[in-house]
């Protein structure tokens, strides 16, 4: 284990005890890479930033669930980011299909909101 991963593991254990300074440091270290991944997957900066916030909220709330035997902290954060981004893409595609089906239904009545 290199010094960076050792620091990351220490930060994760501190975040699990609700240490705000450790969380800030973890965010500073890993948010740029996570945001880059999210930008590549989602292709929109605004959506990527929203998902980044969701990811780090999950890190804050579930740091005690982090398992160092399964992944590095960076790997865990990127896995969370990828998973949330793919969920967002699925929701986007599902909404698009619903809109297409609704537009193709000539006999459907408009339902007021």
Keywords:
about 110 residues
Description:
The model has no long low-confidence stretch (mean pLDDT 92). The chain starts with a helix and ends in a 9-residue tail after the last helix. 19% of the residues are buried. The protein is 77% helix and 0% strand. It has 113 residues and is mainly alpha-helical. It has helices at residues 3-16, 20-42, 45-62, 73-104.
Derived structural class: mainly alpha
N→C terminal distance: 56 Å
What's the order of the H and E elements? Answer: HHHH
User: Can you count the beta strands?
Assistant: 0
Biggest sheet details: none
Low-confidence stretches: none
Give the integer mean of the pLDDT values.
92
What overall form do the CA principal axes indicate? Answer: elongated
Helix content: over 70%
Alpha carbon gyration radius: 19 Å
Count of alpha/pi helices: 4
Beta-strand proportion: under 5%
Summarize the structure.
By secondary structure, the protein is mainly α. Helices cover 77% and strands 0% of the residues.
Blueprint of the fold:
Elements: H1 3-16, H2 20-42, H3 45-62, H4 73-104
Helix pairs in contact: 1-2, 2-3, 2-4, 3-4
């Amino acid at each position: 284990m290199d010094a960076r991963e050792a620091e990351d593991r220490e930060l994760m254990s501190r975040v699990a005890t609700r240490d705000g300074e450790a969380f800030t440091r973890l965010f500073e270290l890993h948010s740029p890479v996570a945001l880059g991944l999210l930008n590549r997957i989602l292709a929109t900066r605004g959506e990527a930033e929203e998902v980044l916030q969701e990811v780090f909220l999950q890190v804050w709330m579930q740091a005690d669930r982090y398992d160092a035997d399964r992944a590095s902290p960076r790997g865990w954060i990127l896995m969370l980011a990828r998973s949330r981004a793919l969920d967002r893409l699925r929701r986007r595609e599902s909404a698009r299909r619903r809109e297409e089906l609704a537009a193709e239904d000539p006999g459907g009545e408009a339902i007021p909101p």
